[in-house]
Amino acid sequence: MAVIVALVWRLNSFGFVGLPPSLPASRLWVEPARKFCYLRSMIRSPSFAGVILAAGESSRMGRDKALLPWPPAAAAQTASNETFLSAAIRSLSQAADFVLVVVGKNEAALASIVYANGASLVVNPDPDRGQFSSLQMGLHEVLNHGRDAAIITLVDRPPAASATVQSLREAFEVADQYIWVVVPEFTGKHGHPYLIGREMIEAFLRVPATSTARDIEHAHQEHIQYVRVEDPFVSMNVNTPEDYAALQAPGRIVDC
């Protein structure tokens, strides 16, 4: 009897139905578990959060790049109260459920802009560990907020056009399931913002904070899709006063 009962318990644990109450233990009766068929959706529907990395010290610029006026004064036809940071938040907001801004020692200087534009702050207590540590902190918060994908950009560049960000999101949603990352490409150069799914988020979080996003992406190159866009800002870095001054030249500013 004990052997039969133990066998029934084991069968139950694997999805079988055991002895009906009305049958004696000498008559063992089992029923195969029901089979389920799962159909993979042709289009993914991830929930995106925007992540802006803004914890750097902007040493080569001489002032916080997040606070640079956008568009530059000489290029703007009318005076603008926007900054690189506020424009970046606006750029991501239409394609993301919410936007997180990772800050460091500049928290006090950036907080009012972050909150005024409907974003949230994430503070990196030790930004000297490098930019990747800020990325990891932002991605932890993405998961903590129940999202499974992120749109990531840097604050040290002109904002990508909202239409560019939306096209990247659409490319991610229709990509094959083995694509974890969608990266914009302009004239052969890769840039930001790039989009990552849950698999890449976890890959980024598994490695030390001293790592680099580029190294981790290269280790998963087969999961990356590059999407051509007609937006020069995706690959444009602004690191020095000369880089910023070049943006003031006529014809360099496009609608974002």
Would you kindly provide a written description of the structure presented here, covering whatever features stand out?
It is a single chain. This protein is α/β, with parallel strands linked by helices. The chain folds into two domains: 1-34, no CATH class; 48-246, Spore Coat Polysaccharide Biosynthesis Protein SpsA, Chain A. The protein contains eight helices and eight strands. The chain has helices at 2-13, 84-93, 107-116, 131-144, 162-174, 198-206, 213-219, 241-246; strands spanning 48-53, 99-103, 120-123, 149-154, 181-186, 189-190, 194-197, 224-228. Strands 1, 2, 3, 4, 5, 6, 7 and 8 form an eight-stranded mixed sheet that branches. Strand 1, helix 2 (84-93) and strand 2 form a beta-alpha-beta unit. It is globular, with a radius of gyration of 25 Å. The termini are far apart.
Separation of termini?
76 Å
Instruction: Give the amount of beta strand, in percent.
Output: 5-15%
Report the oligomer. single chain
Number of strands: 8
Gross CATH architecture of the largest domain: Alpha-Beta Complex
- What is the CATH homology-level superfamily of the largest domain? Spore Coat Polysaccharide Biosynthesis Protein SpsA, Chain A
Stretches where pLDDT falls below 50 for ≥5 residues? 1-41
Mean pLDDT: 84
The rough form would be described as globular
**Radius of gyration using CA atoms only:** 25 Å
- The run of helices and strands is HEHEHEHEHEEEHHEH
